[in-house]
Amino acid sequence: MKGKILTLLRERGDYVSGQELCGRFGVSRTAVWKAIGQLKKEGYGIEAVRNKGYCLVSEGEIYGQHELESRMDTKWAGHPVVFYDALPSTNLQAKLDAENGAAEGTLLVADMQTAGRGRRGRSWSSPGGTNAYFTLIIKPQFHVELASMVTLVMGLAVADGIRKTCGVEACIKWPNDIVIGGKKVCGMLAEMSVEREYIHYVVIGVGINVGLQTFPEEIADRATCLQEECGQRVSRAELIANVMKAFEASYEIFQRDGSLQGLAERYNSLLVNRNREVRVLAPGAEFQGISKGINDTGELLVEKDDGTISKVYAGEVSVRGIYGYV
Q: 52-90 burial, b for 16+ CB within 10 Å, e for fewer?
């Protein structure tokens, strides 16, 4: 109920009577009073005026269960939200929850991770109070061959969510790194449980650099954060809610088409190295060419010097710019 109260107070932007809150949520005045008191203890600036009601007068960076619930404007993605102060890894917890029957749309969010992971088993620095770490559980009915495309759908959603929240030109480095000004601001890791041709679940983990921070020396020249890029503090809860909203819309298009057909044009418009020379690094092979964007199955089309088109599948392949990260 506290999340719903926050949503109403934020949307109204004015006083809401205790009587209206009681009627809206079907609870007593005492229950409303207790909920308001708990929200105040969490740090919300809520003003109570006799014969007028309650008004949300100030908000800092409050990050937690109720704030996330109050921001989530979706039908299923991000419902329910499960917030943790700390986890080893949101992906690891999501896989455990999915195995134990967690519903599709469950979103796990942690303020910090003690064992965050990236692609190929790399560690992912996950300090508290700074960044956004979250994992979405989905339980798709489509064929297992389509599963790899879901990370591209999430990549598009993150880019769109960042743009809406911060107003900065977030772009995509294929397949799903998000970059701003040529520097990485977000990484993702998707994992799934499959039995023959049946997908039990897919978990999609996202880590977004939000607050000001000092990056390790080995990545300092190619990493950035949202606060540095937009010049102001960014609400992590608002950001995550906007990403979920964008993902839900794009995922429905993806499910309808059974491919990336309806999303490819938008995705390619945000592809940072489209029509630029790239280097493709694959086990036992390396070549250069011009990136032409993705096809309907999410493969990157790279035109070689002889005019042939190579379809690059997102697996153990790395695609980089000729002179740097992008």
A: ebbbbeeeeebbbbbbbbbbbebeebbeebbbbeebebb
CB within 8 Å of 270: residues ≥ 6 apart: 156, 159, 170, 171, 172
CA neighbor of 122 nearest in space, from 94, 89, 99, 147: 89
Rounding to the nearest 10 degrees, give the CA dihedral for residues 172, 177, 178, 184: -120
Which parts of the chain fold into alpha helices (H)? 2-12, 18-25, 29-41, 65-71, 90-99, 150-166, 226-230, 236-257, 264-269
Q: Is 90 helix (H, G, I), strand (E, B) or coil?
A: helix
Taking each continuous run of H as one helix and of E as one strand, the counts in the chain are: 9, 14
Peptide bond into 140 cis (omega under 30): no
What are the CA-CA distances from residue 197 to residues 119, 141, 260, 317, 321 (Å)?
Answer: 24, 10, 20, 24, 36
Q: Is the pLDDT of residue 121 over 80?
A: no
List the single range of 54-58, 110-114, 227-231, 243-247 with lowest mean pLDDT.
54-58
Give the torsion through C-alpha atoms of 277, 190, 166, 55, to 10 deg: 170
Q: What confidence score (pLDDT) does residue 41 get?
A: 82
Instruction: Please state the pTM of the whole predicted model.
Output: 0.86
pLDDT of residue 284 exceeding 90: no
Q: Measure the CA–CA gap between 113 and 125, rounded to whole angstroms.
A: 8
pLDDT digits (tens, 9 = 90+) for 192-212: 999 888 899 999 999 999 999
Q: What share of the chain is helix, strand, coil (3-state, %, to 5)?
A: 35, 30, 35
CA 188 to chain centre: 9
Position 323 pLDDT exceeds 80: no
- Give pLDDT, residue 217: 86
Least confident of 19-33, 73-87, 165-179, 244-258: 19-33
CA-to-CA distance for 35 and 29, rounded, in angstroms?
Answer: 10
Rg (CA), the chain: 21
